[in-house]
Write a structure and sequence with these properties.
Strand order of the largest sheet: 1-2
Distance between the termini: 74 Å
Strand content: under 5%
Radius of gyration: 25 Å
Structural class: mainly alpha
Largest sheet: 2 strands, antiparallel
Number of strands: 2
Number of helices: 5
Oligomer: single chain
Order of helices and strands: HEEHHHH
Length: 108
Amino acid sequence: MSSCKAEAGGVPLAGRIARLTSVLYFFNGLNRSFVMTIEQLEAEVLKLPRHIRARLAEALISSLDEDSEIEQAWEEEAEARYQRYLAGEEEFVSAAEALAQLRSELQP
């Protein structure tokens, strides 16, 4: 089997991607539309090689993140805190200690 062929069915990867892509486009100028149900789309996507499905999954999950700037800011803050900890500039406590301290502060 050629390296450009997918595992199942012997259909070239490029052909599978082209077929999947073609059903997602709407050709309004031709008054034709290709519509695919979620189940059909899922079945086609599952035929793709694992690494392609992984890239697609990552892109889909990323598209759900509406607050990417906030997430990026938290990632940067976490990294900065970790670097301060490594440099000995900050001392951290365990989650159990932090919760115990908060509980004691909130007690009347």
